[in-house]
Amino acid sequence: MEEARALLKEGVLAHLSALETESVRLVELQREAWRQQATREELCATVERLRAQRDQLRAKVLSATQVMTEVDQENEEKRSEEEKSAGDSQLHMSLLTARLSHVKNLLRAHHLIGGYDITETRRGKGVCFSIATAFEDRTLETYNVEMDLARTMRICRHNIPPFIPLERLAQENFQSDIMAFLDSLSMHLNAYVGRRQQVRLIQELFHGSVKVLESNALCSILVLRCRQVGEKKAAALCTLEYGDPTRCLPTRVTIDSEEKTLTDSPQWNEIQALFLETPAHQALLAIRREERIA
């Protein structure tokens, strides 16, 4: 009888110890979730603040552009009478120089909060806009668009990747709102390099446990094979589709596996949601910390 009581006591103590360990783990997970939420809110506030600053400078640039457009129209009306005069030619060049200087000063200020740098080319007959790209606070490639200002403003040279819809973006905003054109182009470029950087980080961080099976030049589709943790160690196939070319997060996530009990479980539904809200390499790191993949 005493031996039975001792065994029962040991069993109860072991069970209580297991409950205590599980409770500590759950508390740590909850604290981590709170920390991530606080970080996310802080980043969102920073983004909103920078957007407000950008909008203020964009309004100044638009106002200056409108004034310069009015000056150009006035000069156009007088051009037929003034073309014969060399002095009037010098006046036109002075106005053009002043125009470039004013826009350059405004855009350099805009560059300080994540805008674009601008340099004069071909002795004042053109300007070159530099669009820097970044992902997770790391500066990546810089792309350039050179514009001809001699007569009608047009793009004369650039190093934009061919799969970025430069011509369509130019048709939409180029002549009427140059800042809207640059902002739209910047969104496409930053989203592209962000998606491409995620592929590189997956290949560097997981060393074969997660394999990139497919990815196109625009990185608008990404197929990953992940080794699941479990007795059968089945492989999961994750397909990430990026339907919005201006974002580096997928719009659709599909997960398939030979082990249907895993992919149909609530945990894998949570994983799908995680991929939709988090860059792919960060989502995979979180899944590996929970020991759902190798």
Walk me through what this model shows:
The chain has a domain at 21-78 and 87-113. Helix content is 58%, strand content 19%. The chain is built from seven helices and eight strands; from the N terminus they run ααββββααββββααα. The protein has helices at 2-82, 86-111, 166-173, 178-206, 260-263, 266-277, 280-289; strands at residues 117-121, 126-135, 138-148, 154-158, 210-215, 221-227, 235-241, 252-257. A four-stranded antiparallel beta sheet has the order 1-2-3-4. A four-stranded antiparallel beta sheet has the order 5-6-7-8. A hairpin with a 7-residue loop joins β6 and β7.
What's the gist of this structure?
The protein has helices spanning 2-82, 86-111, 166-173, 178-206, 260-263, 266-277, 280-289, and strands spanning 117-121, 126-135, 138-148, 154-158, 210-215, 221-227, 235-241, 252-257. It is α+β, with helices and mostly antiparallel strands and 294 residues long.
